[in-house]
Amino acid sequence: MAKWGEGDPRWIVEERPDATNVNNWHWVEKNASGWSKDKLKELLVGLKITDDQGECEIAELSKIEGEASANNRKAKLIFFYEWEVTGEWKGSLKDGDKIYKGKFEVPNLSEENDPEDIEVTVTCEKSTDEAYTCKEIFRKVGTPIIQQQIAKYIKDLREEYSQGIVLPTRTTGGSTLINTSYSMLKCSFINNIFQNAAKKELNKVITSSEKSNAGVKIRTKILKSKEEFKCNASDLYRALTDPGMVSAFTGSTALLEPETGGKFSLNGGNICGEFIELVPNKKLVQKWRVKSWPEEHYSTVTIELSETEDCTRLNLHQVGIPESEFERTQCGWQNHFWERIKQVFGFGARLF
């Protein structure tokens, strides 16, 4: 084996000390959900909130639902996290011996919201004036304190899960980290996309698009296009079928069931349909429509992937596009799919 820096320059791949994930090209993912739950408990449970009228404390976190992950693609760090946190608080007023209790909720802890935009809703068990005063102490004084703790969670998540996920390259020596800016994508990441709640939502979206006015004859056109991506076919296939990756480049929660007969909903239900055929890393066939199209009208989208020595070629064939929607559909694929995939995952950069 050649020593570091002494490889044959004719080699088309960069030398790596561990010979894995050359150039950090492949999508690498680390699950941060378990760590996040422990970290949120550490930062919030026992947190004291005081002012001149009294003192409150977070007694426990009764529910932490959601997930978090750190991802690397072409040495670019991408963090996904989405949490719903509920807990219980207790407090008392000065010059009083009564303990008041209640609940609080943080419903929107995700990368879509900056820490200072995180909401904290508070309720109390009793409806007395004293209990209300105690609740307001927790809400008014506690909200910015909780936001600060959440900001610390986000900072620690980045620091903890950037370690080792971007692997050393020849230009960085043996270092386990390279200098790179953290990229916070405005998206939500749902790994458990196939849970019943998500399926119900998919059914709701599809059903809402299948109402009356069926059978109206409309003029349609066929769209054919070709595109090249600097990645393996398996990476591009994942970018088109993995809920987390689709959420990343679309910038909103993507609901997908990547199986024959499985449904999908993108961009808040603006695009929806069904998977007709899936051939891993080679082919996708979808029943596909935009919400603004005539009701019950679907096009058929066929996407074929072919891997070459230096890229993966994508051929798109879409039949049944309403004539009035053709140009917008054509631009939509180019601007909101292909260009976004290249930008977010680095599939537009040359590997060789």
From TrEMBL:
Residues covered by the Activator of Hsp90 ATPase AHSA1-like N-terminal domain: 29-163
InterPro entries: Aha1, AHSA1-like_N, ASHA1/2-like_C, START-like_dom_sf
Alphabetical list of Pfam families matching this protein: Aha1_N, AHSA1
Domain of life where this protein originates: Eukaryota
UniProt GO BP: protein folding
GO cellular component, one term: cytosol
Alphabetized GO MF terms: ATPase activator activity; protein-folding chaperone binding
Family: Belongs to the AHA1 family.
Protein name as catalogued: Activator of Hsp90 ATPase AHSA1-like N-terminal domain-containing protein
Organism the protein comes from: Lottia gigantea
Highest classification ranks of the organism: Eukaryota, Metazoa, Spiralia, Lophotrochozoa, Mollusca
